[in-house]
Design brief:
Layout: H1 10-15, H2 20-30, H3 33-41, H4 43-46, E1 52-54, E2 69-71, H5 80-84, H6 92-119, H7 122-139, H8 145-173, H9 176-185, H10 188-203, H11 207-215, H12 224-227, H13 232-237, H14 241-254, H15 262-277, H16 291-318, H17 325-334, H18 336-349, H19 352-372, H20 378-406, H21 412-434, H22 443-459, H23 474-483
């Protein structure tokens, strides 16, 4: 693909918008989403619902007089629930395991985000993969539940690192015209990972072997150390001009583009960039300094919270709502593939605002209907859960793109990062909401239904950003509202 000589982006000018080199590197990077999906959603098969009774079969199973429980092992031979007796007063510990996972991802986003800015993308990403493999495998061998939680946290810490660095790397490599599309396609391997997970569990019914099975494939990704290039944008940012030039010339050659002007263009860019850097200032207070920015921050942040709470909560609830757990989870993964492709079309045809509002409303209504459908009509509940996952898979990447376009350049990283934290808080609360099914079966779908409807209402106040120039200053960002 030809490069755009009129574009001021030095990376795009040098190696083009999207060529063979981009596609090969992005394919490598996308592979991190498989283990990321497995470790984020693995709790569905690590702690599936299980029937149990007191060992004497007479005493109430949750009575203090019951000294030991026996479990139905007809579907799963061993889970963390059966191994550590996480029932009755200890039921919350299974949900805590998933909350610890999401907390680890939150800290992983922050820690490895800092490390990647400080030391580059390639090194920290490889380090995160190694930590993920080692801790993921070690999790299967821990003798105590407390150690299980620690290893889950460390595995999630690494998973959060692979997620944030890999996405940033894709965004830094791909040209502007393809950035939105590739940013959404980046979710596809995660969808495939979700879809494959019940296949692992169907053939591996012991949680220890399942944990090993979802951890070992990432060993292949350690090869990033030798094959993955550093981000040329980061190299230029930290002043490593010669390394950046060498990498850009190699990429341009692979994309069949001219390389003779790259060195001169880089030197001009570096000289101009030093001047422009002095003008770019912003801090976290800018997110709440004016009424319009406060509105952006609150509305976008709440919709990120909706994504974290409802996507991960619904995914876990699907495993607890009855019917065949393998089919239910597989279908919820399968439905994400067409919904991800649909979101690419929708954000361009309908715009960011209408796509987010529509998907939130669809997710909310389908969840509320689940609460009204009797458990014996399992096929209707499964169908509605698939509709719910379809809508949530559309809304999540949409709000990601939307927030990146609403927040100005001076606080874009801070704005998107703060919003992402809201999603992590939602995902930490999700397992406890899904666990309310043991209190009242209708409670989780009602909560997961009402929340996105509230998010849709908040979206009404947001302006449309389709085909708009990315704002550089707070004043430019506020013009979106003033023009509507």
């Amino acid at each position: 693909m030809e490069k755009d000589s009129t574009n001021s982006d030095i990376i795009q000018n040098s190696i083009g918008v999207l060529g063979r080199w981009h596609i090969a590197i992005c394919f490598m990077i996308f592979l991190v989403k498989f283990p990321a999906a497995w470790h984020q959603l693995g709790i569905v098969f690590l702690a599936p619902p299980v029937e149990f009774s007191c060992i004497d079969n007479k005493t109430d199973k949750c009575s203090n007089d019951c000294n030991e429980h026996i479990f139905d092992r007809s579907i799963f031979t061993e889970t963390i629930i059966t191994q550590w007796d996480l029932v009755c007063a200890r039921t919350y510990l299974a949900s805590l395991a998933q909350t610890i996972t999401m907390l680890g991802i939150l800290f992983g986003n922050m820690l490895f985000g800092y490390l990647s800015d400080r030391f580059g993308r390639k090194g920290p990403l490889t380090g995160a993969v190694v930590l993920q493999v080692v801790c993921g495998i070690c999790t299967a061998f821990v003798p105590y539940f407390s150690l299980f939680l620690i290893m889950r946290f460390l595995t999630a810490l690494a998973t959060g690192g692979t997620m944030v660095i890999s996405f940033v790397l894709v965004m830094e490599l791909v040209g502007l015209q393809w950035r939105t599309t590739m940013g959404i396609l980046y979710q596809i391997p995660g969808n495939l990972g979700h879809m494959l997970m019940p296949l692992f569990s169907y053939f591996i019914r012991d949680w220890k072997y399942f944990q090993i099975a979802i951890s070992i494939p990432a060993v292949i990704l350690i090869s990033y150390y030798w094959f993955l290039p550093e981000s040329p944008r980061w190299l230029l940012t930290v002043g490593k001009k010669e390394k950046a030039i060498k990498l850009l010339e190699k990429a341009a050659h692979y994309n069949k583009l001219k390389t003779e002007n790259i060195k001169e263009d880089v030197y001009k860019y570096m000289k101009n960039n030093e001047i422009s850097k002095e003008k770019q200032t912003g801090n976290i207070l800018d997110l709440v300094k004016t009424p319009i920015m406060r509105m952006y921050t609150f509305c976008v942040g709440f919709n990120w919270f909706v994504g974290g709470l409802c996507f991960f909560g619904s995914a876990q609830y699907i495993g607890q709502m009855g019917g065949n757990i393998f089919i239910n989870v597989a279908l919820s993964g399968v439905i994400q593939i067409p919904s991800t492709f649909f979101s690419i079309w929708a954000v361009k045809a309908w715009g960011r605002k209408r796509t987010l509002i529509s998907s939130n409303i669809l997710a909310g209504i389908s969840c509320l209907l689940i609460a009204l459908v009797p458990e014996k009509l399992a096929w209707i509940r499964t169908t509605l859960s698939c509709v719910d996952m379809f809508a949530l898979t559309v809304s999540f990447p949409t709000v990601y793109i939307y927030s990146g376009e609403l927040f100005p350049t001076v606080v874009r990283n801070i704005g998107v990062g703060t919003s992402s934290m809201c999603a992590r808080f939602g995902s930490m609360a999700a397992p406890f909401i899904a666990g309310l099914v043991v209190v009242q079966a209708w409670l989780p779908p009602v909560i997961f239904g009402v929340t996105p409807l509230i998010g849709a209402v908040f979206c009404i106040k947001l302006p449309e950003t389709l085909n708009c120039k990315l704002p550089d200053s707070v004043e430019e960002a506020e013009q979106f509202v003033k023009k509507h």
